[in-house]
Automatic annotation (TrEMBL):
Domain TonB-dependent receptor-like beta-barrel: 444-904
Entries under Pfam families matching the protein: Plug, TonB_dep_Rec_b-barrel
Residue ranges annotated for the TonB-dependent receptor plug domain, each copy included: 58-167
Keywords: Cell outer membrane, Membrane, Receptor, Signal, TonB box
Species the sequence originates in: Agaribacter marinus
Protein known as: TonB-dependent receptor
NCBIfam families per UniProt: TonB-Xanth-Caul
Any one GO CC term of the record: cell outer membrane
Keyword Membrane recorded: yes
The organism's taxonomic lineage, starting at the top: Bacteria, Pseudomonadati, Pseudomonadota, Gammaproteobacteria, Alteromonadales
Signal sequence extent: 1-29
Keyword Transferase: no
Subcellular location field: Cell outer membrane
Family indicated by similarity: Belongs to the TonB-dependent receptor family.
Coiled coil: none
Amino acid sequence: MPVKKLFTKKTLAIAVTGALYNIALPASAQSETKADKNVEYVEVKGIRRSLFLSGSIKRESSGVVDAITAEDIGKFPDTNLAESLQRITGVSIDRSNNEGNQVTVRGFGPSFNMVTLNGRQMPRSSSLTSDGIPRSFNFRELSSESVSEIQVYKTARANVDSGGIGATINIETAKPFDYDGFKAYGSVKGIIDTSVESGDTVTPELSGAISNTFLDGKLGVLLSLGHSVRHSHTDRAGTEGWVRNHGQNINTSQINNGTGAWWAAQTVDLDLIDTERERQNAQLVVQFAPNENVVATLDYTLQRFEQKSQMNRQGMWFDSPTGTPDVNGTLVNPIEVTDELNFWAWQFLEQTEGDSLGLNIEWQVNDSLSFNVDLHGAESKSNPNGINSEHRANLANGAYQLNDSGDLVAVATKLVDITADFSTDIPRVVVDDSALPGGNAYDPSNIIPDLFHTFGYEIDNNIQQNRITGKWENNNSGALVEVNFGLQNTQYEVDTRRFGTFSFVTSLNIDNLGLTFEDVGDALSEFGGAQSLYPLVPRYSADRFIQLAEEQGLFFQVPPSQDGVEEKTTAAFVSADFEFELAGMQTYANIGLRHEQTDVSAYSVLESIQNLQYNHVTGIQQVPDGVPVAQTLKGEYNNTLPNLDVKLDLTDKLVGRFSYGKSITRSDLDKMFPSTRITQLRPNEVAKARQGNPNLLPYVSDNIDISFEYYYGDASYVSMGYFHKDVDNFIGEITVNRTLDDVNGNPLTNPSVNADPDLCPSAVVPDPACFNRADQPAIEFEFTTPSNLDSSEVDGWEFTLQHVFGESGFGTIANYTVVNSDAEYDIRKIDGNRALTGLSDSANFVGFYEKGDVLVRIAYNWRDQFLLQGGNEPTFTEDYGQLDANASYQVNEHFTVFVEGLNLTNATIRRHGRYQQQLIDAEQYGSRFNVGVRATF
């Protein structure tokens, strides 16, 4: 590789330290140090080298920066990037399907953290309505083999993209000039998932990369490929949430919660979920250095992700529960009389396609001045075929059945009585089905079709980012070391189509549905077993249900609504680095200023509501007018973001830091859509609606960090840090009660009140006989709108120990983070809660042994309870700990065999509402193992 004037004082410090401790260095640093024949050079590989490089990055940075480096090409510490990041102090993760997918830093959830790939913003999309319109990167979609380093910037920097109040996380991928000539690796592993019930217990994961340089080091090419298949199973018990003041004949005498309110579960459910996931990743990097002063890098990154899940649920709805709430207002023992069991089926299809193309040119003009031009475009598409990504169908016990003529005839005067008990980790359910013919709620003759529901997103998310930066280095004496400056333009454009069709189809003939029932077996064994809920779970396909509806002319598709946001941000920054002595201590300082102007344009295309129809005893259907109407709103804001980082070498081993910086996080995208949507509309329940707000200002945080680090070995140190964040423009929801108008400007009225009992409800939509009328009462909606509210404070402590026990081969990493805030959710407050999601303490412990050809590592990650979702009815994730381990043996200089175990103790996840008895989810995944061989050449 040609020698370039790209060797900074920071790299020099790492190189000198590495020489002193006989540690192998990256190729770029080796080229400088190997020239000195008097320096002893002993190569150390594996974990110790990775820990040394990560610690060096932390030590030499002026701000608070943590890092994880690959042990070698294609050898990142974990197969999942999020699961690697959780080992860093202050970083914890959210899991989906028992796999890390997003990160929380210092108590700030995924939407508060900016994730970049090689310093560039990356778009994300999802086809699931439960995901909303995400900004935050999902780590499960990117394999770790092509990653060489992850840096976590916890303090603001003028030259780092804004958006991360928690942190900015930069993922660096391998490049051909990182290696000296030819380098290649390949890995083959089998993923063994012990949870699998339907599918392959062992699935393949393949990865490989090849890199080489040509033309005397002037041209380099690297190609990496990855393919992964995983099958898994999840057992879940839970509810569809808890409703305030829901039920009838409620005895409130025991309530002592300060409000007098009570909460009842909407449902009680048992789910069996089978999932198949396939992921492809590829990256092609071409580097060209025509001379020693210019390096051009062209890179293309590809991501393809597909996940299919089939879920079957045994459950029931509490339409009119009775009972006595406990002192907290939780209806722990609800009773539902003369209702029905529900037999659900879901089909989920998650498809995302991501493509990124970037060109970077480094130009060393002279010994003092250099420029960097970076042009980048990236796109993420979900559900690119534009189909419904979620299908749901329901069967139910019924008092009526279809006869041979297709008419509904009475078969029972009473259905089932249900009693539930929510006082334990998972509820217990008693079903009295003695009134049904044969006394069996699971007899197909007592089951009728109920409804279908199709929904999902199609999202096209584009980012165009152009940046030019410069650096002037002071080659003369003086405190000023260098000045960095730059201009950047970022255009963020998101277009969405939202699907949603709902219909009751009680006249559907389900003879060919293939309905069977499965014994729940050992489901949820970690919670004491699922037999206490329901003995059986229905098995059938929601896709097949909808196919039958199509064949019988009962299926219809509502045109999708459309929403979109375009953000254009222009940024300019300048920063200066200084090095000087202060009271005999070597001092480093970085002073920076970043200014941004952001223009926002948001649109929605939605049909207006012409009528409401009473279509079911538990439902009211919207009847649109069929005329899509576009609405566009605009907003803008400016932010000036200063930063100051000071690092003092108090001794040759002790480092002290102080940092101040201002940072921002932009609003979630779906909060800015201008459309008004009804989110809940049922007879005898509170009607709910919401509208977006394109004029939302970003969260703005003033941040202070103080820390001390003591480096007492080549890869050993201990650190302690305090951080404080004042967050302004806190985004919360304002709730008002008001009516909502139809297309003619008249308030919507309730069609279930004083409806014709001989004609309504009617499942045939539209049916004018069951439309709302002017003589019926107007519906008062609980209307929510996101808005910038008060400020909040977050502070905490971080403690880290990284220790290598001499030459014994043993080492350990331990860290603990404490986070506090005045923006914690107040469960005794009914409305107006402003709270940070993800706020929690966390701890990690890693122990390892590496000597000769043997490596063994064990890691335990713990996270305390945190708020997963706020709003008027919260969701809390309870504390969770997971034990992982891996071991490898290097057969020879080319081949290594390994085994990895994840969630070895079969840890389970439980979520609840305001109080622990208000169960939301209890999920069990099982353990999984990876066994394989790795080759390096």
